[in-house]
Specification:
The complex is a heterodimer of chains A (114) and B (218).
Chain A (H helix, E strand, L loop, with lengths): L11 E3 L2 E3 H4 L5 E3 L2 E3 L2 E3 L15 H12 L10 E14 L5 E16 L1
Chain B lengths: L16 H19 L14 H12 L9 E6 L1 E2 L10 E5 L2 H5 L1 E10 L6 E13 L2 E12 L3 E7 L1 H4 L6 E11 L5 E2 L6 E2 L7 E6 L6 H6 L1
Antiparallel strand pairs in B: 1-11, 2-3, 3-8, 4-7, 4-10, 4-11, 5-6, 5-8, 8-9
The chains are: A mainly beta (114), B alpha+beta (218).
Chain lengths: 114, 218
């Protein structure tokens, strides 16, 4: 997937590392020390509609439909997450118990056009 | 960067880096609290001692696998001062309601002192809420230990589930056995019930399956 650079106008993944110390939460989140809060941003012009940023087959299906029908569809295509990964957290709950949990779909790995 | 540069997604002016950073950190807080089903960050009043925490985590890292989408919980015991000897200690654990309702695996970790002179016969009772001025007590498990050090004692999760109370009370009853099974006078301390080697519960919590509530109501 495209990782956003300052001059990238097209749909890409913007990487942000959040340190729990910066949130002031290192006293209750024991592990890890931070996580990637990535998000998607950028434009999705018609010719990129359906390009999920990883596998192009869906993109080619949409593209051939675009060609077969009107070249300028009314709807807009948006830059959205197309692949996510879980985050394993170890934290203290309000009773002082240690809880280990895997939070599904927490980290955006890839972005693409809907 | 002010009005000069344009947001590639919405066409509006982009945020100054500090403002963008503050916004992202706020979003991170919301995302974490929402995914952990918390309304606000927990206020930790009595965190477990670091040494006890490190030791417990090291034990659990050996081969433990959290249930898919479930949780693993370590709950450290506090003891009532009234216990005369550690062999009749009352161990008190504070659990959240969800933890006690969706429990599917439980082990009590106890540290037996090196001064163990024989076989330690241990019974573990669960103390329930008072009914008609009487305390209800249920035998959960019996174990025999012949070596000092840490022991992980499996408890029936069915015996721990359920009460609305978030306080779980386990009473230990232990006595020393000679080779032929006769009881011998026991030294005052056989188990560690405080400090860094204090007992802890290792729990595995199932995720909230859809319909669990219906089953319970039925």
């Amino acid at each position: 997937t495209l990782t956003c650079e300052p001059e990238t106008p097209l749909c890409c993944r913007r990487d942000y590392y959040v340190d729990f110390q910066e949130l002031g939460w290192q006293d209750w989140i024991l592990q890890p020390e931070g996580y990637q809060l990535n998000y998607c941003s950028g434009q999705c012009p018609p010719h990129l509609a359906g390009s999920p940023g990883i596998a192009a087959s869906f993109h080619s299906a949409v593209f051939s439909l675009l060609k077969a029908n009107n070249p300028w569809p009314l709807g807009t295509s948006c830059c959205v997450p197309t692949a996510r990964s879980p985050l394993s957290l170890l934290y203290l709950d309000r009773n002082g118990n240690v809880v280990k949990t895997d939070v599904p779909d927490m980290v955006v790995e890839a972005c693409g056009c809907s | 960067q002010g009005a000069r540069s344009v947001c590639p997604s919405c066409g509006g002016p982009t945020l100054a880096p500090q403002a963008e950073r503050a916004l992202v950190l706020e979003l991170a807080k919301q995302q974490i609290l929402e995914r952990l089903h918390l309304t606000s960050r927990p206020r930790i009043t009595n965190p477990p001692p670091q040494a006890a925490l490190t030791r417990a985590l090291r034990r659990l890292q050996q081969g433990s696998v959290a249930p898919a989408n479930g949780e693993e919980v370590i709950s450290f015991a506090t003891t009532t001062d009234s216990s005369t000897s550690t062999c009749s200690s009352m161990l008190i654990f504070q659990l959240s309601t969800a933890q006690s309702h969706h429990l599917h695996h439980a082990r009590l970790w106890l540290h037996v002192l090196p001064t163990l002179p024989g076989t330690l016969y241990l019974r573990i009772f669960r103390w329930g809420p008072r009914r008609r001025h009487r305390v209800s007590r249920a035998l959960l498990a019996e174990h025999q230990m012949t070596t000092p050090g840490w022991h992980a004692l499996t408890l029936p999760s069915s015996g721990l589930r359920g009460e609305e109370s978030r306080v779980l009370k386990l009473q230990l009853h232990c006595r020393l056995l000679e080779g032929n099974g006769t009881t011998i006078p026991q030294p005052r301390r056989l188990l560690d019930t405080a400090g860094d080697q204090r007992p802890f519960l290792e729990l595995k919590i199932q995720p909230n399956e859809p319909g669990t509530g219906r089953a319970r109501r039925r």
